[in-house]
């Protein structure tokens, strides 16, 4: 039992590190490949890998009820989140995005309560309001008095992925942990083939090595393997215990933005990240009444 917990924490940590590199990789790839290739093309590439795995393992098809839930997962994790974050990274620094994505665990908890027919306590709503207001004020401050389009996109990304995570967590009990994201990828990929194909140009061949590495990272790791590690970690070590590792994500993102993109970090960014994470911890652990 103790070994399972240790392995679960290790896999969960690996998953969060992989997710934390998503925004830096997106920021590097977008200028060379464009929003469609980076946002949707990653799913098409991941679908090829998933297809090979499913064929070799002879996975059974989901039933109609499961397909409905998989549609929700695909809409958030496979379509909306990649596309919205790709759009946002055209104009926002990664450290800025890390602060707004720090609200993801809170959004996931809220949608999990809603999908589970539960009523959040006042503590949850107070923490949610404080965390959300702090993020909005920070975004307005950096936007010189107004929200930028990238901020709106990131907030929408948090909400859609929060719903997708909650639905995926619920479905993984029936379908299996990594199978949820794998089926979601296969459901979404056919719809992306045409727009991705139309967006391919000869100029992309001139993209530097780091841009190609970033695109492949997004397709193979961010879109698939990171989910395998994350869901696998939670199944071994427990959702509540391993889920706490999410609180490291905004700080890892900020660190990677400094390391790989040379972004400068202010004390305001660090302090606000701490405030938001504290709000998320309080809200996520708030009592719930059915």
UniProtKB/TrEMBL annotation:
InterPro entries according to UniProt: AA-Vitamin_Transporters, EamA_dom, EmrE-like
- One Gene Ontology cellular component: membrane
Residue ranges of the TM segments: 39-55, 67-88, 94-112, 124-144, 180-200, 212-230, 251-283
Residue span(s) of domain EamA: 7-138, 150-281
> What highest taxon heads this organism's lineage?
Bacteria
Q: Where in the cell is it found?
A: Endomembrane system
Q: Which UniProt keywords apply?
A: Membrane, Transmembrane, Transmembrane helix
Pfam families per UniProt: EamA
Membrane topology term reads: Multi-pass membrane protein
Q: Which family does the similarity line name?
A: Belongs to the EamA transporter family.
Q: Output this protein's name.
A: EamA domain-containing membrane protein RarD
Whose protein is this, by species? Mesobacillus foraminis
Lineage of the species this protein comes from: Bacteria, Bacillati, Bacillota, Bacilli, Bacillales
């Amino acid at each position: 039992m103790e070994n399972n917990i240790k392995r679960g924490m290790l896999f969960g940590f690996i998953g969060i590190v992989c997710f934390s590199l998503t925004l830096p990789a997106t920021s590097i790839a977008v200028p060379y490949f464009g929003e469609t290739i980076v946002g949707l093309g990653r799913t098409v590439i991941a679908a090829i890998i998933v297809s090979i795995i499913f064929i070799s393992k002879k996975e059974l098809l989901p039933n109609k009820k499961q397909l409905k839930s998989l549609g929700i997962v695909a809409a958030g994790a496979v379509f909306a989140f990649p596309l919205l974050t790709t759009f946002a990274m055209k104009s926002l620094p990664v450290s800025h995005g890390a602060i707004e994505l720090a609200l993801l665990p809170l959004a996931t908890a809220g949608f999990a309560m809603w999908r589970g027919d539960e009523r959040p306590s006042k503590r949850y709503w107070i923490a949610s309001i404080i965390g959300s207001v702090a993020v909005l004020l920070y975004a307005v401050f950096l936007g010189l008095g107004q929200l930028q389009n990238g901020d709106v996109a990131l907030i929408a990304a948090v909400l859609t992925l929060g719903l997708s995570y909650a639905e995926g967590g619920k479905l993984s009990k029936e379908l299996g942990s990594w199978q949820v994201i794998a089926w979601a990828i296969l459901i979404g990929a056919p719809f992306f083939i045409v727009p991705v194909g139309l967006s391919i140009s000869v100029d992309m061949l001139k993209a530097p090595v780091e841009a190609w590495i970033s695109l492949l990272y997004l397709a193979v790791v961010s879109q698939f393997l990171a989910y395998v590690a994350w869901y696998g970690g939670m199944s071994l070590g427990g959702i509540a215990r391993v889920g706490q590792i999410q609180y490291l994500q905004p700080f890892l993102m900020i660190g990677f933005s400094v390391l790989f993109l040379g972004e400068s970090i202010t004390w305001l960014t660090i302090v606000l990240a701490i405030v938001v994470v504290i709000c998320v911890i309080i809200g996520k652990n708030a009592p719930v009444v059915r």
